[in-house]
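# nightly structure sweep
# worker-07 picked up a monomer target from the shared queue
# config: single-sequence mode, recycle default, output format = structure tokens
# input follows
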Amino acid sequence: METFYPPSGFHRHDHDACIEAVMEAVEARIAARKLRMTPVRRRVLEMLLESHRAMGAYDVLARLKEEGLGYQPPIAYRALDFLVRHGFAHRIEKLNAFVACARPDCADPAFLICRSCAAVSEADAPAGLDRTARLEGFAVERAIVEAEGLCPACRREGT
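# output follows
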């Protein structure tokens, strides 16, 4: 079966199909791993999938509060921790925020972050890092690649 990767968050695409594809992949992983997707965890993932922008934990908490799903910070942090721990979301260090995982089969993602509109696109990490590490005898356990620049829309607008 061919792996489906949604298009870049920087380009016009069928966002509903993008969300559906990611949710199907998450549901399959949840079932295979016998994990529990609570209503709050599901809603937080849906929020992260609504746009290709990172959300801070307090933004997530505010939305949960509006929807009557909780108002205490641990509720948002626990849901985000679960999603990140199981690879359904990522923490963007530069923004101190979270994005849904757009490429569930990608072991080492890299993130392209627009400094103007805060859109985030997920890509495969550069192969050069892994190759260099192997040549040095270094075992990479975790790498976070975050590239900051301007997305195509912001470049066109000249921001």
